[in-house]
Amino acid sequence: MSQKPVTKGNIWDFRRGIATARVLTQLGFDHGVGVDAMLQHTGITRAVLDDPAAEIEALQEVQLIRNLLHALPHLPTLGLIAGTRYHVTTYGLWGFALLSSPTLGAAVSMASRMLNQTFALTTNSVEQHDQLVQVSYHSDHLPPDVRQFIIDRDRAAAVTLQREILGRPLGYRRIQMRRAEPSPEVANAYAELFGIRPEFGQPRDAGIFDASLLHVPLPQADTHTMQLCEQMCRRLVDSRKARTGVAATVRNRLMRTPGHIPDMEEIAAEMRMTSRTLRRHLTAEGATFRGLLEEVRSTLAEELMATAGLTHGEIAERLGYADVTTFIEAFRRWKGVAPSTFRRTQGLPPPSSGQLRRRFIPR
């Protein structure tokens, strides 16, 4: 049965992190546009721009985009350039959750239902039929003067994320665009981005790829992105409790590979010592391997609930638990209450859930 995407209400008009404003402002600055000119009429001050915890309204971002387009009308591929600047790490802990998804399908499902953790201004629907998946981008709710830039930006950002979590291009079967065929320069920029020449003048903005790709395990192969995610998680955990010496080395290693937390034997081997020697070093520093592991898992679990909105099963998967029941038991040990109770008492939204929407995809 076909399900039409909803594009009204707060599905796109949500408050968003300041990181998107920083990306756009930096893009303008890199092309000679002053910061004050970029922020004009947005209500965003330099102080807000410099505050990593700040948030802005969607319409403030729309005005920022309008300023960028007004200042750089001679760059027809500006939206594509902007989109390639949105990396996994731009999205904070949500990016970590995306990177540590077990398969592309799990990442797509999470991204589709957690739109308000992204910086998208388009809305999207993911539909599967037989052996094809279609991701459609909807933009009729956006002001016409910024619409094409936003479509280009959001699609380029999606491609950038796909490459970083897959470690390679996705491999589209078809790219469809509603816009009329542009100049050869712009058409070539699209083809370079997607790896295939788009079909212009289509009834929808969509990308179509083989459904088999949804089951491909994610390699987490982009070393640079993984290192940035590790640093982000390390800062988070360090803000709760600082560590030095061997304990710091062990705790940092526990955060290095999303979705796979090594055991003590593995870490000891990497440090070129026996597990017994490692245990002795940790004891001398007043730490234990189990304690460090619990420290990392507890902090990341709480943050993934608060900022990424994952289900308990998804959190368990990313923290290296065999099943959700084991995670729930561990969470009770850390906090004294079940995860669902913790979410409720802390005023956190319940975890999101959803399925891929299905309908016929024309070949």
CATH-derived topology of the largest domain: H-NOX domain
Number of strands: 6
**Low-pLDDT sequence parts:** 1-10, 354-363
Assembly state of the chains shown: single chain
Total domain units: 2
Percent of sequence in beta strands: 5-15%
Strand order across the largest sheet: 3-4-6-5
Pfam families: Arabinose_bd, HTH_18
Keywords: DNA-binding, Transcription, Transcription regulation
GO cellular component, one term: cytosol
Domain HTH araC/xylS-type: 244-345
Topology at a glance:
Layout: E1 16-17, H1 19-30, H2 35-39, H3 46-49, E2 55-56, H4 58-71, H5 78-83, H6 93-99, H7 104-113, E3 123-129, E4 132-138, H8 144-166, E5 174-176, H9 184-194, E6 205-210, H10 223-240, H11 245-254, H12 264-270, H13 275-284, H14 289-308, H15 312-318, H16 324-335, H17 339-345
Antiparallel strand pairs: 1-2, 3-4, 4-6, 5-6
Helix pairs in contact: 1-4, 4-8, 6-10, 6-14, 10-14, 11-14, 15-16
Give a verbal description of the structure.
The chain has 363 residues and is an alpha+beta fold. The protein folds into two domains: 207 residues, H-NOX domain, CATH 3.90.1520; 105 residues, Arc Repressor Mutant, subunit A (Orthogonal Bundle), CATH 1.10.10. 50% of the residues lie in helices and 7% in strands. The protein has 17 helices and six strands. Helix 1 packs parallel to helix 4, helix 6 packs across helix 10 and helix 11 packs across helix 14. The protein is globular, with a radius of gyration of 22 Å.
